[in-house]
Write a structure and sequence with these properties.
about 700 residues; alpha+beta; single chain; about 35% helix; 10-stranded mixed β-sheet
Length: about 700
């Protein structure tokens, strides 16, 4: 259904002669717009009179862009403050070459802030802004902590949030026209309101018609031609703090020099590009920036707005945001927690206040303990050794000469570590760094949180803050794991021709080893056929959102994992299979026209439904095994485990009371009762905590000490 373009759908070029007169916000005319403000010495901040006070920067008008930046700082009560806009921008380097003049002194500011203020000031009116670097006394740690705790309300109550992306370039004029065209196309094919159903409708439309395929390819080419990637690859998108600022904004506007772009327009084009890329497996320019930052902020903002009207588990929400945002830049790792507090403000019982006198480890540990005390067991799904570069048990923190144990720098395995350098680890045959690291994400289940039948039984000793004691059920010992050789590859992408052959060999090897490791002719716990059990274990039971989006929402029929595996064997593994034969031809004809990542357009547009399904299944498996290892346990159970799971009898599968998904845990030695949390796992046939607790063939209920 087509819809006329609204007047705000494009980037709008602002005529400098009209700036200020058409502003929608309440601003106050300056009595003397060109009055010189004496620079004096360094500006001296005055302590706030009230705890609810904030400062508003009143930016003086200027008729010439070359005029000095002049302003006034006005203290006001946050609840009664006059209309203001909040600025969201990248601080940049800790260099302050520019001057902001105020009555009674001056403040040195970064070049990034100076360029933003210069572009945003009006010609004939003052403009009220809230700018963190200026409105907060950065030299006062107590004030800084208190003001940071109010930032959520400051951004939420602002008339609008202005996201400064940088200075305009000549090339950008071409991008504006391109963005307008893409927005118009998106609306014409039905993408009017941004939500999940429209998103899936678009994917279905692209796959269902020949015209849809051709138009999708054309749109992707247009986006690449117009360098749309330069927008979402702006450094603004990489910052941690911008997430809170973007999520809480009543109205979010991107500012690029004198151009502005409303959030709705940006979001619509992002969903259009994502749907095309995922539906047809076409490449997206600056793919890492697109998914890590651009698409990421779209999905997180949508998640936040939907959760406003839902009952949620704070621990699960912390885990969600931490997982989604750990690639973002943050100068102070404590802000990886503090930047989330405004988003989680509905749970006032967390009792976490920004305090920059505390160490990073202490901030993370206090958050974990407070959340778990409140019953937010979902926090455990964000913890574990699967997200750590290295781990040393508590006994290694004992001084060899004095025998004194110092755990001030020790973060236990059950407490999430939000530091980017830790959270971005990838594993193949051990931990290793990657230039574009992959964040570990479970590819099974839709909700990680509380078990509906079994209550948590967690004890957090005050005299041993690093220790968590819980009841649990030991299920089985892990005896075999199979890592994927491509788990850390930054060259091979899921859409590459070579990945098809790598995945084919990997799946053949998994099935052979599975068959040789199963005890008897049926899967443990019943009479389930081995092929069916393998097919379900391979994709985590087909329980995650991506599985449903990829295979169920684009089809009127529900496709189960067994049917997908049988179709994959027939189409891809058998040498006369349609997809296998097509990929052999592609490899033998590398110079053929119309190829994307080694595969020709003809394959996408003329292949059978079964071939298309097998191709999508291949890409789905690639994503699973970038995040998991296939494993088997002593009694024959199989499933998906975190990337650094071991098979040397140290790792076991266990249910922790209160959690609705089992975990891999690691025993830390024969002379200790301590275990380390590795991460959540999928065990085919053993995903019911209550059934596991009542199953007498398992290791039985026991007290588990996690450190």
């Amino acid at each position: 259904m087509a819809l006329e373009l609204s007047s705000h759908l494009s980037w709008i070029k602002i005529d400098p002669s009209l700036r200020g007169s058409a502003d929608n916000y309440d601003v106050h005319p300056s009595n003397s717009p060109e009055t010189d403000i004496s620079p004096g010495g360094t500006y001296q901040y005055q302590a706030f009179r009230e705890r609810t006070s904030i400062r508003i920067l009143s930016l003086k008008p200027a008729s010439d862009p070359q005029m000095e930046l002049q302003c006034e700082l006005i203290e006001t009560d946050r609840a009664t403050a006059e209309t203001y806009e909040a600025l969201s921008y990248v601080w940049g380097k800790d260099e302050f070459p520019n001057i902001l003049h105020l009555e009674g002194g001056y403040i040195k500011i970064t070049a990034s802030l100076a360029s933003a203020l210069t572009a945003l000031r009006l010609i004939d009116k003052e403009r009220n802004l809230w700018v963190d670097a200026v409105c907060i006394n950065q030299g006062d740690e107590l004030e800084k902590g208190h003001q940071v705790s109010m930032m959520a309300k400051i951004y939420r109550e602002a008339a609008g949030v202005l996201a400064w992306l940088g200075q305009e370039t000549k090339v950008f004029e071409l991008q504006t026209a391109g963005l307008l065209n893409l927005s118009r196309m998106a609306i014409n094919i039905g993408l009017i309101n941004v939500n999940d159903s429209h998103h899936e409708l678009l994917k279905r439309w692209i796959r269902s018609t020949q015209d849809g395929f051709k138009m999708a390819v054309d749109m992707m080419r247009m986006a690449n031609l117009w360098n749309f990637w330069t927008i979402y690859s702006s450094s603004w998108f990489t910052r941690m703090w911008i997430v809170q600022e973007a999520l809480l904004a009543r109205q979010l506007t991107f500012c690029y020099g004198a151009c502005t772009l409303h959030w709705d327009d940006f979001e619509r084009v992002m969903i259009l590009m994502y749907s095309i890329g995922e539906s047809l497996h076409l490449p997206i320019e600056s793919r890492d920036y697109f998914f890590k930052f651009g698409w990421n902020i779209v999905t997180v903002r949508d998640h936040y707005r939907r959760r406003l009207t839902e009952e949620t588990d704070t621990g699960s929400e912390i885990a969600y945001y931490a997982t989604q945002l750990n690639r973002r830049q943050c100068k102070d790792d404590r802000d990886r927690v503090y930047a989330l507090l405004g988003i989680l403000a509905r749970d006032r019982n967390l009792h976490i206040q920004p305090d920059y006198s505390k160490s990073t480890v202490r901030v993370y540990l206090e958050l974990a303990r407070n959340a778990l005390r409140l019953g937010h067991i979902g926090l455990l799904y964000e913890a574990g050794l699967c997200r750590r570069l290295s781990f040393a048990p508590p006994d290694l923190y004992t001084h060899p000469e004095t025998g004194i144990q110092d755990l001030s720098k020790y973060l236990p395995s059950w407490a999430p570590d939000y530091r980017k350098s830790i959270a971005s680890v990838v594993y193949v045959h051990g931990p290793q760094f990657s230039p574009a690291p992959l964040t570990w994400t479970p590819r099974f289940g839709t909700t990680f949180g509380k078990d509906p039948y079994i209550c948590a039984s967690i004890t957090l000793p005050e005299d041993a803050p690093h220790r968590l004691i819980t009841l649990g059920t030991l299920v089985d010992i892990i005896t075999w794991v199979e890592p994927a050789s491509f788990a850390s590859s930054e060259v091979l992408r899921a859409s590459h021709l070579d990945m098809f052959f790598i995945m084919r060999r990997f799946c053949k090897r998994l099935k052979e080893k599975f068959d040789s490791n199963v005890i008897g002719q049926s899967y443990p716990g019943g009479c389930e056929d081995l092929t069916r059990a393998f097919a379900y274990a391979l994709v985590g039971g087909g329980t995650d959102d991506e599985y449903n989006k990829t295979f169920n929402l684009i089809s009127s029929e529900q496709i189960n994992p067994l049917d997908l595996w049988i179709n994959y064997e027939k189409s891809c593994i058998e040498e006369d299979g349609e997809v296998y034969q097509a990929m052999v031809w592609e490899r033998q004809n590398p110079e053929a026209e119309g190829k994307v990542s080694g595969v020709s357009y003809n394959f996408y547009s003329t292949g059978s439904k079964e071939a298309s399904r097998a191709w999508s299944y291949t890409h789905h498996l690639v994503q699973i095994f970038r995040n998991h290892r296939f494993f088997m346990a002593a009694d024959g159970y199989a499933g998906l485990a975190p990337l650094n799971t071991k098979d040397n009898c140290d790792d076991s599968v266990a249910f922790l009371d209160g959690a609705n998904v089992p975990f891999v845990i690691r025993h830390l030695g024969d002379d200790t009762l301590d275990w380390a949390l590795v991460g959540p796992c999928y065990v085919h046939g053993v995903m019911d905590a209550q059934a596991a607790m009542e199953n007498k063939s398992f290791g039985g209920r026991t007290q588990i000490h996690l450190v």
